[in-house]
Amino acid sequence: MARSTVKVAGKRKPAKKAVIASRKSCGAKGTGLSHYILMDEKAR
Amino acid sequence: MSGAGAPGTAGRRAAPSRGRFVNSGEGETLQPIDVGHRDYLAVVDPDTAFWSLVARDRLADAFGDGPLVRAYRKRREAFRKEMEGLRFGLTPSAVYFNPTERCNLDCAYCYIPATMRSGGEHMPAERLLRALERLRDYFARTVPPGVRPQIVFHGAEPLLNRDAVFAGIEAFGGVFRFGIQTNATLLDDAALSFLTGRGVSIGLSLDAPGRAVADRTRKDWSGQGVHAAVLDAMERLRGYDAWSVICTMTRENAGQLTRMVEFLHRREVPTCLMNVVRCTLPPSREVKPGDAAAARAFLAALDRSFELYQETGRKLVVGNFANVLLAILAPTARRLMCDLSPCGGGRAFFAVTPGGDMFPCSEFIGLPRFNGGNLFRDEVEQVLRSPAFREVTGRNVDAIDPCRRCAIRHYCGSPCPAEAHELNGAMDRPGAFCELYEEQVRYAFRLIADGRQDAFLWDGWDAGTRTTFTAPEA
Predict the structure, then answer these.
(1) Alpha-carbon Rg of chain B, whole angstroms?
(2) Going by C-beta distance under 8 Å and a sequence separation of 6 or more, which residues neighbour residue B282?
(3) Which residues 50-79 in chain B show a CB within 8 A of chain A?
(4) ipTM reported for the complex surpasses 0.85
(5) Residue of B150, B330, B459 lying closest to A23 (CB–CB)
(6) Does B334 reach chain A within 8 Å, measured CB to CB?
(7) Residue A34's pLDDT is what?
């Protein structure tokens, strides 16, 4: 999540992170195009 | 930083600098983008598709030698290689297989010329089986053991040649993963039972929730719409895991997209595509929506999909937007290969016609000059190296103006080459839409800033991925 919470004057308010960044990687398996997308049970 | 040189400079004979400074010399290229968020700007390295969201009041920190730049510097070369592999290192693992040229519909925007659809040829069953043998043999040489390549029966309308298609699925079920894209008019109970019983992924097409609009773009040769037949098939597919609906956005239905989301969600469609019409052939240009209008309608539909998820806990994933999110969050996890440059045509997949002719993508089937060879006469590897295929696989967003200056070019890819070539006159031109992709990327970054991205993605989308970057502690 982009925001965490901190206790401020007795109330929990979101603390804005200075930087949000992430990246994930895997083997490339994409085969779809704008005319079709292959769906399977894992894609729900 | 040491004087060893920035990542990526090793081996160069005359590095102009040590890469100590962002945006000069060999330093990192980081471009700020106003994504329309109250608190954050995006900071992107276009070449590696690296991104971060930086608080507006901390933006200057992102360009000095702070934690973010230092962390990115360690990963920059790995990300560059990752993008290079994704963009230039793939070999096909899927085939879009047209078992017939004919279609019982005459949709306004079809990429198959009307003369083919009205009087074209079927591929005989014996020949289709032989084609699948040829493809099996090709993939045995190229895909890793244990990976099942995909065969997607596509069209025209593949169920017009149903016996041949089903014979192929029956004979090669253990070899390939099969899918079929159909207009649903011939998807009777027996066909549906056959396909669902074998786990075939089924795509239907429907452009609007109501008959009046849906039937204007998708109709038979006598002008009769097929809305009712699609709804009937959708009802019978309810509960099946592997199905989706494609809605082609045109000026006819752009105002209906939000209602379409509500309709598809109510009918428990797991995934839809809401793709803007491809303007490759002239008739499709007659229904082209305006770029800005398409963007507004599309984002409103996405907003509605989020509201419905909040209200019900059930997602309708808009697959083409999910793919833009994936292009940002995990570039190699993309499922669709259009919004990438070079696109997937001739690289991740190719298309085969009923005569065995091979094209980089279905979108080129109406353009004879992009015929790269024939499955029955030529080796697939030879066709993939043909000038026709190379013209498509060589289309590079880094050489297209204005895309080459665009910070988000590797989240968009400037689709589509067929459209660029036919509508705008050359491969090194952009496609028909730009703002639509700009706005999607901006929207995606706003979602990430607010931590809402998972609501727009398939459950478990990151299974099998590993984290390669996280924001450093300030």
Answers:
(1) 23
(2) none
(3) 50-55, 58, 61-62, 67-68, 75, 79
(4) yes
(5) B330
(6) yes
(7) 82
